C-alpha cells in the first residue's frame, strides 16, 4: 500500500445520539480535558464554513475534546446551553460552560479557544 495517501482522520467527534453526548462529556470530565462544542445546523452555510477551522483547532489542541452537534437533531442539548444562533461555540470545563462564542469570526474563535485551553486546569 506504499504510495497511497492515508485518509486523514477527523479529530472532531460528531455527536450522533444523546448517549454519545453523555459518553464524550463524561470521558472528558474524567480525563480533565477541556471541551469545545460547535453547535451547528446542516442547512446553515456559516456553520458549514467553520468546519475546516474547527478541524484545524482540533488538530492543534490534542489534549482537548472537540464535539460537533447539530441543533436540529439535539434540541434539548442546544436548549440547555441557550443556543439561539449558529454557529455557536461553547467552551466547557468540567461539564460547565465557561465561555460562549456566537458567530463566525475565525480570529475571535481561535483567540478565545487558545486562551481557554491554555488556562484549563489540565494545562497549567
UniProtKB/TrEMBL annotation:
Any single Pfam family the record assigns to this protein: Thioredoxin
InterPro entries named in the record: Thioredoxin-like_sf, Thioredoxin_domain, Thioredoxin_H-type-like
Lineage top rank: taxon: Eukaryota
Domain Thioredoxin positions: 1-118
Name of the protein this chain belongs to: Thioredoxin domain-containing protein
Amino acid at each position: 500500500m506504499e504510495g497511497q495517501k492515508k485518509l486523514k482522520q477527523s479529530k472532531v467527534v460528531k455527536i450522533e445520539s444523546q448517549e454519545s453526548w453523555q459518553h464524550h462529556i463524561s470521558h472528558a470530565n474524567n480525563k480533565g480535558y477541556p471541551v469545545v462544542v460547535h453547535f451547528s445546523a446542516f442547512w446553515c452555510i456559516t456553520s458549514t464554513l467553520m468546519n475546516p477551522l474547527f478541524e484545524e483547532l482540533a488538530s492543534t489542541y490534542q489534549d482537548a475534546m472537540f464535539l460537533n452537534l447539530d441543533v436540529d437533531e439535539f434540541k434539548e442539548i442546544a436548549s440547555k446551553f441557550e443556543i439561539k444562533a449558529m454557529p455557536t461555540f461553547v467552551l466547557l470545563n468540567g461539564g460547565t460552560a465557561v465561555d460562549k462564542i456566537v458567530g463566525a469570526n475565525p480570529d475571535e474563535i481561535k483567540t478565545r479557544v487558545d486562551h481557554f485551553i491554555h488556562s484549563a486546569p489540565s494545562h497549567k
